[in-house]
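Dear U.,

Please find below the material for section 3 of the report. The protein was modelled together with coenzyme A; I have listed the sequence and SMILES used, followed by the predicted complex structure.
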Amino acid sequence: MSKIVISGTGLYQPPHVVTNAELVEAFNRYADLQNAEHAEAIAAGTRTAMTHSNVEFIEKASGIKQRYVIEKDGVLDPTRMYPRFSERPDEQISLMAEIAVDAAKKALAAAHKKPEDVDAVLCAAANMQRAYPAMAVEIQQALGAGGYGFDMNVACSSATFAIEQAVNAVKSGSANCVLVVNPEITSAHLEWRDRDCHFIFGDVCTAVVIERAETATSADQWEVLGTKLATQFSNNIRNNFGFMNRMEDSDPQGRDKTFMQEGRKVFKEVVPMAAAHIEGHLATLGRTPAEVRRFWLHQANQGMNQFVIKKLVGAESSAEAGSDIAPLILDEYANTASAGSIIAFHEHRGDLQPGDLGVICSFGAGYSVGSVVLRKC
Ligand SMILES: CC(C)(COP(=O)(O)OP(=O)(O)OC[C@H]1O[C@@H](n2cnc3c(N)ncnc32)[C@H](O)[C@@H]1OP(=O)(O)O)[C@@H](O)C(=O)NCCC(=O)NCCS
């Protein structure tokens, strides 16, 4: 059986940074405006006053220091508190496809591939800009790729789940060269007016090229030793936005139509799931966590990654999230949904040597966990 490799990755980084200080200032101004507007109800005890957010809490609870966003002014406008995007005519490339094409071109250049070498495009992300036509088909056309394209969504695990589909497509011969793109415009699903979560997300897009080793010519190739996916239903991360909202006569501005989570429960339930998943996956390949040179973990919370890494390789005193074994990118990018573990892989693999093992692992809503075990060629 031929070896399947990841032969290139690409990253689109949005143009604007929002620091925690800027974010908190905007939130606190919004809270003050709300409290002034509802002063009577608050005084009468029929409404609870909004509480200020603060930078120290955000950094201690999550490890996030800033995030990149596609549009900043709307997010920081206390009378709006969400990005300002303009509607585009159907003839113009859509925003999601545009950032996907940028990341895809970089991944193809890294893999020494031309767009026409690609015969499958998987657009995998936590949110899709529209119902149809599939984003992947627009991206395929904008690039000049052949074959087929489809969209898939497994929330924060979309990228690893798509990598498994890409590997299987190449293995089965239904495609020769698959492009996986993860355009995560999370600024549009985040509830920037909710103190419990306003700091969590950032925008980005990642891209990965997957092909057989025989066709790969890139200088930086990673053999896929195995992929493993798992899901278990939970309502603890949920967003009820959907195409039936209008028929249900529900409030389009309702709190449940953007990202919601029970952060504590997610933290407690997902950490053991992810650690056991990685350990089980490695065992099926006859490997142990101690043999792994690097873990490119999902980037939602520094503390979560710390627990996962301690469970996996706790005996080694140097095994800290954020150190060499499990690099963090969430301080700079925040939680970028499915793209986080791929950004970590993109930015932190240059020092590994041929034969070194690494694991990409995502975890998030669903719940969903996906792992990809790699060996540097
Ligand atoms: C979201 C998360 C950072 C919150 O951290 P936490 O330590 O669980 O914080 P809690 O929500 O329990 O809140 C702790 C306290 O801080 C307060 N707080 C919440 N947001 C705050 C803010 N922005 N500023 C100041 N205080 C805040 C809360 O009101 C609470 O106060 P209380 O103890 O008086 O009730 C954390 O739970 C997390 O990252 N969970 C996993 C998330 C995840 O991976 N999600 C996947 C998404 S794809």
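For the text of the report, you could mention the following: The longest strand covers residues 222-231.

Regards,
Y.
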